[in-house]
Each structure stands twice: as structure tokens, then as C-alpha cells.
Amino acid sequence: MHELSICQSMLKQIETVAMENRATAVHCIKVQIGPLSGVEPQLLQQAFPLAVAGSIAENAVLEIELLPIRLECRHCGAESNAVSASKLVCGQCGHWQTRLLSGDEMLLASLELDRSTAEQAAKG
Predict the structure, then answer these.
(1) Residue 109 has what pLDDT?
(2) Are 20 and 56 in contact (CB under 8 A)?
(3) Which residue among 5, 7, 70, 115 sits deepest, i.e. has the most Cβ atoms within 10 Å of its Cβ?
(4) Rounded to the nearest 10 degrees, how much is the dihedral formed by the CA atoms of 80, 83, 85, 90?
(5) Which tens digits make up the pLDDT trace of 54-78?
(6) Mean pLDDT, all residues of the chain
(7) In which region does residue 77 sit, left (phi positive, over 0), alpha (psi from -120 to 50) or beta (all else)?
């Protein structure tokens, strides 16, 4: 299950962002995943608690947004969503010569950080 190693890599990024922002906890992690990314959202959700155990993100909620596959037709120039991951044809003219615009990515979209304890300690 390579989703565990993906979660561990993502945690390194999260910890870096949290440290840069002097956060004491991470409450919510939003990830965007395309169907062609090679990442299984359900497996990522299952691996997440194992990867973040004992970290600043231990109590965080993982929210996953599934992105569509977007194509540009090389024949008619139209942009459209793909019918399916195995059928990357133009949604306008049905031509098979298309260019992938999105759908193969996995992005760490946003983090909800808690800085309250650090701010209170700095004031006190």
C-alpha cells in the first residue's frame, strides 16, 4: 500500500508548514486527488491515521476532494471533462486526440492550523 508512504511524505510538508506558521496543532487537511493520480482515496483515508499518529496532525481530519479529468481536444479545441478514466475522448466532438489538462494530480490544497497556544505563550 503506497498510500502510507504518500501520507508520510504529505506529513513532512504539513509539519514544515505548521512550523513556519508556529502552529501547535493541525485541525483539517484538505487534499485534491485526480482519478489518474495513481492514489486510491479510500486507501489514503485508511493510511492517514497510521501516518499522523503522534504528530502535530494526530487529531486532524483528512478531507479528500475528487477532481475531474479535464481534456483539451486537439481536433476542435474544446475543453471538456473525460467520460471516464479509460475513455479520454473529447466531450464535444468525440475525437480521440486530446491533451490532458488535469486529473493526474494530488495536491495538498489547504491546512487548518491552530496557533492559539503559541500566541498565548508569546503574550504571557
Answers:
(1) 96
(2) no
(3) 7
(4) -50
(5) 999 999 999 999 999 999 999 999 9
(6) 92
(7) left
**57: amino acid identity, one letter:** A
pTM for this entry: 0.83
Q: Is the dihedral of CA 102, 103, 106, 108 positive or negative?
A: positive
| Residue 54 falls in which region: left (phi positive, over 0), alpha (psi -120 to 50) or beta | left
Q: For 13-49, write each residue's pLDDT tens digit.
A: 999 999 999 999 999 999 999 999 999 999 999 999 9
> Which H or E run contains 48?
helix 41-52
Residues in a beta bridge with 72: 79, 99
Instruction: Give residue 81's region: left, alpha or beta (phi > 0; psi -120 to 50).
Output: beta
- Residue the block writes with cell 486507501: 43
Beta bridge partners of 33: 66, 106
Amino acid at 38: G
Question: Which grid coordinates belong to 48?
Answer: 492517514
Give the separation between CA 53 and CA 21, rounded to whole angstroms.
Answer: 21
The three cell numbers locating residue 16: 514544515
